[in-house]
Amino acid sequence: MSFDAALESLATNLYFDRTFDRHAVKVLPGEFYVTDRDMVLVTTLGSCVAACIRDADLGIGGINHFMLPDTSTVEAGAPASTSARYGTYAMELLINELVKLGARRKHLVAKVFGGGNVLGNMTVTNVGQRNASFVLGYLSMEGIPVLAKDLLDEHPRKVYFFPRTGKVLIKKLRSVRNETLVERETDYAKRLKTTRVSGDVELFA
Q1: What is the pLDDT of residues 158-171, one digit of tens each?
Q2: What does the pLDDT look like over 2-54, one tens digit per residue?
Q3: Could you tell me the sign of the dihedral formed by the alpha carbons of 186, 49, 91, 163, in that order?
Q4: Which of 112, 158, 161, 196 is 20 to 30 A from 46 in CA distance terms?
Q5: CB–CB of 87/66 below 8 Å?
Q6: How would you classify residue 12: left for phi > 0, otherwise alpha for psi between -120 and 50, otherwise beta?
Q7: Under 8 Å CB-to-CB from 124, ≥6 apart: which residues?
Q8: Distances (CA, A) of 199 to 71, 76, 96, 97, 192
Q9: Taking Cα atoms as reference points, which of 80, 180, 171 lies closest to residue 130?
């Protein structure tokens, strides 16, 4: 599959979180991160979704942060389902990287978050709903159990994922409109318009 590499990349914003007394990484739209260390993986979601996936026995885990491309940007003559190929790529990239790190596919479990209705200017009706439906459908198709989910709603949410234990903390951003978040996701959606989607994705066993 051919994609603009800048649209799906390894998160590089590493820091030490004094609240949780451990190393952490901030995952932005279009990024992912996998680790076998006792870290906290942090992301803030609006209309995007994040899948927190881990090997339930080994404690190897990772997270992504992605959005389906706007179906109005799909190339002329292509089926609307073409837009879902980017979500498929984002999910399979995360799973492939977990497997490379030593995770076993048959032991993977997931928790999923996001899909809020926070980007009212998007041309697609309810992009958050589409993202939420996609990630649940993908995991069901691949036989990866979803142990927990917090999807839809109209509020952004901050996610703290601890891959060693599988624990997730969610903070709903109810009282403040997170303009930075909206700007990031809007910019990400614009970049998705130039993404070329073609071919197939190979999922490692």
Answers
A1: 999 999 999 999 99
A2: 444 445 689 999 999 999 999 999 999 989 999 999 999 999 998 899 999 99
A3: positive
A4: 196
A5: yes
A6: alpha
A7: 70, 71, 72, 130
A8: 18, 16, 17, 20, 17
A9: 80
